[in-house]
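Reviewers of the previous submission asked for a worked example of the structure-prediction workflow described in the proposal, so we include one complete record here. The input consisted solely of the amino acid sequence. No template or homolog information was supplied to the procedure at any stage.
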Amino acid sequence: MSSLLTNTSAMTALTTLKSIAGQLDQTSSRISTGLKVADASDNAAYWSIATTIRADNGSLGAVKDALGLGANSVDTAFNGMNRSIDLLKEVQSKLTAALSPNVDRAKIQTEIDAKLKELKQTADASVVSGENWLSTDSSAGNYVSDRKIVASFTRENGNVSVDTITISVDDTKLYDKKTDPADAAAAADADISAAKTTWETAETDWKTAQSTWDSSTKDAAAKTALDTAQSDYNAAKKTYSDAIDTANDAAVAAVDGEGGILNKQWGVLGKDEDGAYKHYELSIDTIDISTIQNQDLSKLRAYVAAVDKALGAMTDAATTLGANKTQISSQTTFVESLIKANERSIGTLVDADMEEESTRLKALQVQQQLGVQSLSIANGSTQNVLSLFR
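From that input alone, the workflow returned the following structure tokens.
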């Protein structure tokens, strides 16, 4: 039945055409934005998950930036520490050369002074973003020994947490404006005075007996006296040697002071010309060997010991910085992989399949054309009714 008031075919064609137009709009939007889920109305669940992941990626990006800044600080301190170790090794070689009795220690001191100045300049120049981990002032009111570097961001069960890498500047500082002297209260030199006196007396007696024997008629009494004196001398010499070892074992160095590795006092022992230990409290930045004489090189040997202790501490500090450098590098790589994984997850949830959308667009365009033709046919059917009235 045909009706002039109600064209069912046209209404159906129009509804279909509107539906196709809506799908075309959606497909065109996906192609232009590259997103199949552009807002919550497209897919509330996927949009919510993607939005959360994007927020996490923003935080991870901040963590990556913080790790980059931390890496710069660690690299600067690490490079400064390595250079300082090389310079201090040169100072150590100068001190070792100064142990020779026929050198000009005043000239060697001039070379040492130049190295010490360069050491201070290297530490002071190791600055990044206003922070210096090699030259500090622990007496400052805002001083904090632990420097924290943001290392990770995690979200678990809706709870957000941030972890850090902690580096103690107290373990890496070479200079500190605040220093405390070494505690020498319990320090003790090796006491060999009594054994030395006994040995010297025996040596004198033996030499006297030898002289007597040389000027005598080599009778039995003179030979007995010589043998006795020599036996006493040998016994006293061994006793003296044993006394040195015993006294050296009992010698006690002062407790190290507080400050930077190169400007704090180190409690060290140095052997004198008798082989006995003397205690000294020495700092690297005030080394002065210009007035040391060959009669007693114990202080020079103590300087060598102090430099050796400082080198050990600097090596430990460089090891710590190197380990932190490796940890930061590894963490940076991990954070980058997390960011990429999150980006892939977001893409899986909300990115449009461009090949699929392109194919869909062409199909919808064909459907739209067919819909227009169907609507045209449906509208034209009412014209056929006029032929019945002719």
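Residues 193-287 form one domain. We consider this example representative of the routine output the project will generate in years two and three.
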